[in-house]
Amino acid sequence: MDNIQLLYVANTVSGKAAASTQTLQFLIRVANLGYGKTVEVHWAGEDGVWRRVLADYCASAGDGSEYWRAEVAFPRQARAELPGDIHFVARLEHEGCEYWDNNDGCLDYFCAAGSGGRMTGVMPVVPLNPMQGLGPAQRNVPLKFAVNAALAAEKVTVHWTLDDWRHVHKTSCRLQSGKRSATHGGYAGLHPVQLWSANLKVEGAFRLQYSICCESGEQTLWDNNAGRNYRLSRAPLKVLILNLHCYQEDDQDRKFWQIAKAVDELQADVVCLQEVAEHWNDGRGDWASNSANIINRRLKKPFHLYSDWSHLGFDKYREGVAILSRYPIERQEARYVSDSSDAYSIHSRKVVAACIDVPCIGPIDVFSAHLSWWDDGFPEQFQRLSDWADSRRGGEVAATLLCGDFNIAAGSLGYRLVVDGHRYEDQYLAANAPALFQQIFRVDDAHWRDQLADDYRIDYVFMNKDSGLRATSARVLFTEQDYGRVSDHCGYLLEFEPL
Fold first, then answer.
1. 3-class SS at 10?
2. Cα 301–233–304 angle (5° rounding)?
3. pLDDT class for 79, splitting at 50, 70, 90?
4. Contact at 8 Å (CB) between 419 and 383?
5. DSSP codes of every residue in 245-268
6. What is the DSSP code (8-state) at residue 479?
7. How far apart are CA 301 and CA 96, in angstroms?
8. What is the pLDDT confidence band of residue 178, given thresholds at 50, 70 and 90?
């Protein structure tokens, strides 16, 4: 395709003559050249004065290009005329280079006042309200299409699915304007259209896929978004894990602010923290100084918080773990998974668990854990943790996530123990190295440890093997390049979607 292509324009006039409003709408497709693009329409009304209106990004197209839309409305005011007929061109600017769609160098595009919608010949079917995704509470998806009137479409149907085409629904569209028979009379590079609309009831589904079928007496035309179908999805579940280093950081207060800033900006949904500290206070603790509580209070909107402590840390703190959740916490629970439950022993390790009902995904069980090194009890602690997690999981739980600092290096004996258990799997690896993940957790290749020699992680998100979720991305946080160092550990942000 060209770097910029006009797809559709509407020049509508509504209301009574003395109080009419004129609206100009433009839909444009541009190549995905990178960030920092400027997309705009230059236009002139009957007064001959050229103006411009900026376009906004709408969504990606199936071929990797992007939909952009511009709109401007003119209510009639005293002694002010409406633009009337317009001439216009579309412009894309990126990194100092300009690209134009000016009707193939002809006398610009032209659209008469009140002529309604018109389309170019670039696409026979144009989605007029392309969307990036489904809103958190959205239950219905309104769709509107412009179909080239020359196709003489007699019936337009949306074929759609909420479960990756295991079940297919068909919804007939309603003809809003335009004749069912072919019309003619396109002018200045534009063609008359039929406008069709439909409304799909998605209720609480996580994702929607659909394609469009146009039928006429002579042909059937499919629009499946360049072979990829149109796709809309809810935002993924975002899980962040971080060991806070138990109040041992220089400039600690600023770093708490940095962590809260990252949670807000990255829109994390669940945060699992380890080495959460509060003043010992003769063993009674001090909630005001609790580091998870401090971070939570600094969020733009505080999360639900569940925290508990295991032992005396650095001779002055109650040290423990915490879960912060955007969604309400249910069935919260804390247990020692270590042999020791002595508050004065560093080998005493307590884990907190919470069931979180995530909208459009369902209940998930989340555990925030800080286990001991291999020689200090990891095998027994992980066995108790995984048995406990399994005992909580019923048929309604979509996934179980064991999150936190496990004090085992990737490829170590401890990691081998997790692999050999065939119950929980490394989700950072699943997202970032799927081939290696398959080799380790599915095939169990004898040489997989060699490929983890340079992987120094000891913080993980392990998910139960029969989970209904999949990890779609994973990134390292709190490095010099990404929000700065806030601990002696990095953080990790993982995204999950339903299968």
1. strand
2. 25
3. low
4. no
5. -TT--TTHHHHHHHHHHHHHHTT-
6. B
7. 40
8. low
Nearest to 138 by CA among 3, 234, 8, 28: 234
Report the candidate in 348, 284, 352 with the shortest Cα–Cα distance to residue 324.
352
Beta carbons of 485 and 479 less than 8 angstroms apart: yes
Give the pLDDT band (50/70/90) at residue 184: very low
In order of 113, 369, 385, 386, the CA distances from 391 in angstroms are 68, 17, 10, 9
Q: What angle do CA 387, 238, 263 make, to 5 degrees?
A: 115
Give the H or E element holding residue 436: helix 434-438
Q: How far is the C-alpha of 178 from the C-alpha of 35, rounded, in Å?
A: 38
* Residue that has been written with the tokens 């032209």 in this structure: 110
Euclidean distance between CA atoms 406 and 272, whole angstroms: 13
Of residues 471, 377, 457, the one with CA closest to residue 424: 471
Nearest alpha carbon to residue 159 among 148, 168, 147: 168
Q: Is 16 helix (H, G, I), strand (E, B) or coil?
A: coil
| CA-to-CA dists, residue 337 to 368, 403, 404, 415, angstroms | 12, 14, 14, 18
Can you read off the two tokens belonging to residue 340? 């020791």
Q: Tell me the three state secondary structure of residue 60.
A: strand
Cα–Cα distance, 126 to 323 (Å, whole number): 46
Dist. CA 297–CA 75, nearest whole Å: 46
- Residue 189's pLDDT band, with cuts at 50, 70 and 90, is confident
Place of tokens 């779609």: 472
CB 175 within 8 A of CB 160: no
Q: What is the pLDDT of residue 186?
A: 45
Q: Which amino acid is at 363?
A: P
In 16-154, DSSP assigns E strands to: 21-30, 38-44, 50-54, 56-60, 66-75, 86-94, 97-101, 109-111, 116-119, 125-127, 140-148
